[in-house]
Automatic annotation (TrEMBL):
Residues 32-266 form the Aminoglycoside phosphotransferase domain. HAMAP family: Salvage_MtnK. This is Methylthioribose kinase. It comes from Paenibacillus hexagrammi. InterPro entries: Aminoglycoside_PTrfase, Kinase-like_dom_sf, Methylthioribose_kinase. Pathway: Amino-acid biosynthesis; L-methionine biosynthesis via salvage pathway; S-methyl-5-thio-alpha-D-ribose 1-phosphate from S-methyl-5'-thioadenosine (hydrolase route): step 2/2. ATP binds at N40, K57, E111, D112, L113, D246, P247, E248. Belongs to the methylthioribose kinase family.
């Protein structure tokens, strides 16, 4: 921590200049701080005369979204850079390349993806990404399979787990997803017009039991190295390319948490459509596209994961078809629960999503919030009985019929 200081734009340029073989000696470099997430500084450094560019991402010693009153470990920069490198070894086309990690400054130097857009923004603008489901289901299948006891040496997995104990960032998730939205916590950020819905959830004992079970699994089920925060703001996209960024929440947890994060964010956009597509027919059409993407992500994941298991499984006791079927059916239940929990927290927990919050019309925003809560709470309630992805699609479709 002793040599740590948050960089200014000028200091970021000086740092970038020293990276060997990147920019021309003495070149004019331009820096822009472009971080719009909740936690970090992000500098875009470019050399206008050659068009070369990189990203410098620096962790701050506190959560930017709240301020210095919420201290946060700088070790998350190490966790992020190591997770990115593991992910790159498993699916090189789906993550940015890491050029360097500087421990003292909690700084990662990585590939610039400015020719992509943040997927959340792309969905808000109504764009379609025909390759996304194939890309993200391959990312999920490879990263989850090859870091689990199914696909990697089981002693090496235990050692790897030790490098990804991430208590401070896990606590953020434990609080903001699996605790605070279910009680009248100070961190909640509740618009007055939906307070009644939040209050109903605070007294719903059956729902709270289901959330407790999901929380328990998040705390104890060390199945695979998760990205840990795989929402559509952690995905850079363009029609022919998908890049997963920001795995600073990486830790060993239940696989369904990452899959659920992707599906939840598709469904949050589904819930928000009244704010973004003004006529009923284009709205229905885009919603169909989102539901088809939900279906394709799960079915693509299941197909790839089963294939990896059959071709590369490391454990003879886990090699029977009966065990594989049991595993996949339990995983789908977790996916339902985590999809639901990740939706509820984004409606009135601490950190919301632009898909809903940026809807200017209050009545349309409220309808989006209530649709998201209806889908989320139903998924949580039904998660232990879930048997097919079609049930999730039906729940979403019924919420707007
Ligand atoms: C204090 S951090 C709030 C949220 O931002 C991150 O992206 C995670 O989702 C976290 O819960
Ligand atoms: Mg993030």
């Amino acid at each position: 921590m002793s040599n740590y200081r948050p960089l200014s734009e000028a200091e970021a340029i000086e740092y970038a200049r020293q990276i060997p073989e990147l920019f021309s000696p003495g070149a004019e470099l331009v820096s822009r701080e472009i971080g719009d997430g909740n936690l970090n500084l992000v500098f875009h450094i470019s050399e206008p005369s050659t068009g070369k560019s990189i990203i410098l991402k620096q962790a701050l010693p506190y959560a930017k979204v709240v301020g210095e009153s919420w201290p946060l470990t700088l070790d998350r920069a190490r966790i992020e850079s190591e997770a990115l490198q593991i992910e790159e070894s498993l699916c090189p086309d789906l993550v940015p390349h890491v050029y360097a990690y500087e421990k003292d400054l909690a700084l990662t130097v990585m590939e610039d993806l400015s020719d992509h857009v943040i997927m959340r923004r792309g969905l808000i603008e109504g764009n379609r990404y025909p390759l996304f489901a194939e890309h993200i289901s391959r990312f999920l299948a490879n990263t989850l399979f090859f870091t689990s006891d199914l696909g990697m040496n089981q002693q090496a997995k235990k050692l790897q787990q030790g490098r990804f104990i991430n208590p401070e960032l896990c606590k953020i998730t434990e609080d903001l997803i699996f605790s605070d939205p279910y009680r009248d916590a100070d961190t909640n950020n509740i618009e007055a017009h939906i307070r009644d819905a939040a209050e109903q959830i605070w007294t719903d004992n059956e729902l709270q039991l289901e959330v407790s079970l999901l929380r328990e699994k998040f705390l104890t089920k060390s199945q695979a190295l998760l990205h840990g925060d795989l929402h559509t703001g952690s995905i850079f996209i363009k029609p022919d390319s998908t890049k997963v960024i920001d795995p600073e929440f990486a830790y060993y947890g239940p696989m369904g948490f990452d899959i659920g994060a992707v599906l939840a964010n598709l469904l949050l956009n589904f819930a928000a459509q009244e704010g973004w597509s003004k006529d009923a027919s284009s709205r229905a059409d885009y919603r169909q596209y989102l539901l088809q993407t939900v279906r394709d992500v799960w079915t693509g994941f299941e197909r790839s994961f089963r294939q990896l298991w059959t071709e590369s499984g490391v454990d003879v006791m886990f090699s029977s078809e009966a065990y594989q079927n049991h595993f996949m059916s339990e995983l789908l239940k977790d996916v339902f629960g985590y999809t639901g929990a990740k939706m509820v927290r984004r409606v009135y927990g601490l950190a919301h999503v632009a898909d809903i919050d940026k809807i200017e019309d209050t009545a349309a925003r409220e309808r989006a919030q209530r649709i998201a809560l209806a889908i989320g709470t139903t998924l949580i309630r039904q998660h232990r009985k879930a048997a097919t992805i079609e049930e999730m699609i039906d729940i979403a479709a019924k919420s707007v019929s």
